[in-house]
């Protein structure tokens, strides 16, 4: 046994080794730019320079939207965990357990009530990290509970969508959530309460085919993929090359599918302003300072 090479050298290397976190740097998916992760977090998960909007979890979204990052969690009803006893590469119950452990959420939608620039608002957020933000029975119940809470408290209802569509592990039971959520949107309109949809990257499938496109005002984050089927599936079906930027937020705005494309730094102020306008509430005497200067704020399109 060679003590110099087998024992002494490894101990010396261990002595001077520095542990470096794996997520110390973030690579911009659009430009390939390497950015220090703390700079991205401080910039609301927007890449400085390219303005690429990274995905946000439900809790992160609520923190940057509600005043002082404070809100009241709305208790959500439980749903059957595995009604079809579904199994593909792994059991559905195992997927649910892993998703709950990863996100600390019970399902793909989280609902909170609080104030946004002094205006009381009920907000629901889909978390793309929970099985792709898919719409199942529990997520449908969460949407319904959020809408009912808005009606009970007489507040606007805002949802931030991020989803790959209906949850296949629940079969037709997930598809049934599409008409159920639509009924609650009708109830919001009967109560004369605003229903605002903020489309984030990505919003596709059955979510787009239901409550995601039924808002009184449709807002999208820059570069968000929004559609029913994905671009690759469409190209393979019609055997034609799609236009540049097809199904992206800016393309949809140019073709009248969304009302506004708003940078994340301006989203809070925009949502609050629209809710005040639609509920005829006065502008607060004092507003919080703008979170980003003009250099970092992308163009916002008026409705």
Overview of the structural elements:
The protein has 303 residues and is α/β, with parallel strands linked by helices. The chain has two domains: 15-54, no CATH class; 55-296, 2-enoyl-CoA Hydratase, Chain A, domain 1, CATH 3.90.226. It is built from eleven helices and nine strands. The strands form two sheets. Strands 3-4-5-6-7-8-9 form a seven-stranded mixed sheet, sandwiched between helices. Strand 1 and strand 2 form a beta hairpin. It is globular. The model is unreliable at 290-303 (pLDDT under 50).
Task: Label the overall shape.
Answer: globular
Kindly report the spatial arrangement of strands forming the biggest sheet: 3-4-5-6-7-8-9
Q: What is the name of the CATH class of the largest domain?
A: Alpha Beta
Beta percentage is 15-25%
Kindly state the number of beta strands. Answer: 9
Provide mean pLDDT, rounded. Answer: 89
What is the element layout, followed by pairings?
Blueprint lengths: L2 H14 L8 E3 L6 E3 H6 L15 H8 L6 E2 L18 H12 L5 E8 L2 E8 L10 H17 L3 E7 L8 H4 L1 H14 L4 E9 L1 H4 L8 E4 L10 H8 L10 H6 L5 E2 L2 H16 L24
Parallel strand pairs: 5-6, 6-7, 7-8, 8-9
Antiparallel strand pairs: 1-2, 3-4, 4-5
Helix pairs in contact: 5-7
Give a brief rundown of this model:
The chain is of the alpha/beta class and 303 residues long.
Structural features:
single chain; 303 residues; alpha/beta; 2-enoyl-CoA Hydratase, Chain A, domain 1; 2 domains; seven-stranded mixed β-sheet; two-stranded antiparallel sheet; 11 helices; 9 strands; 36% helix; 15% strand; globular; disordered C terminus
């Amino acid at each position: 046994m060679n003590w110099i090479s087998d024992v002494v050298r490894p101990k010396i290397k261990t002595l001077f080794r520095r542990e470096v976190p794996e997520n110390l740097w973030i690579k911009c998916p659009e430009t390939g730019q390497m950015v220090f992760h703390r700079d991205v977090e401080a910039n609301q998960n927007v890449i400085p320079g390219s303005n690429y909007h990274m995905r946000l979890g439900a809790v992160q979204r609520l923190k940057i939207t509600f005043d002082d990052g404070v809100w009241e969690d709305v208790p959500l009803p439980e749903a059957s965990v595995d009604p079809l006893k579904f199994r593909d590469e792994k059991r559905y119950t195992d997927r649910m357990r892993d998703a709950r452990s990863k996100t600390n959420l019970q399902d793909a939608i989280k609902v909170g009530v609080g104030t946004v620039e002094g205006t009381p608002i009920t907000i629901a957020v889909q978390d793309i990290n929970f099985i792709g933000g898919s719409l199942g029975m529990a997520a449908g119940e969460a949407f319904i509970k959020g809408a009912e809470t808005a009606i009970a408290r007489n507040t606007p209802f805002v949802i931030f969508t991020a989803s790959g569509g209906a949850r296949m592990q629940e079969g037709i039971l997930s598809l049934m959530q599409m008409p159920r959520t639509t009924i609650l949107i009708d109830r919001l309109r009967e109560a004369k309460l605003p229903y605002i949809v903020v489309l984030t990257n990505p919003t596709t499938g059955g979510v787009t085919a239901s409550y995601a496109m039924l808002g009184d005002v449709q807002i999208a984050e820059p570069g968000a993929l929004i559609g029913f089927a994905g671009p690759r599936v469409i190209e393979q079906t019609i055997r034609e090359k799609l236009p540049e930027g097809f199904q992206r937020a800016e393309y949809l705005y140019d073709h009248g599918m969304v009302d506004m494309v708003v940078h994340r730094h301006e989203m809070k102020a925009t949502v609050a302003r629209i809710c005040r306008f639609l509920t005829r509430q006065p502008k607060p005497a004092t507003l919080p300072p703008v979170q980003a200067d003009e250099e970092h704020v992308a163009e916002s399109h008026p409705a």
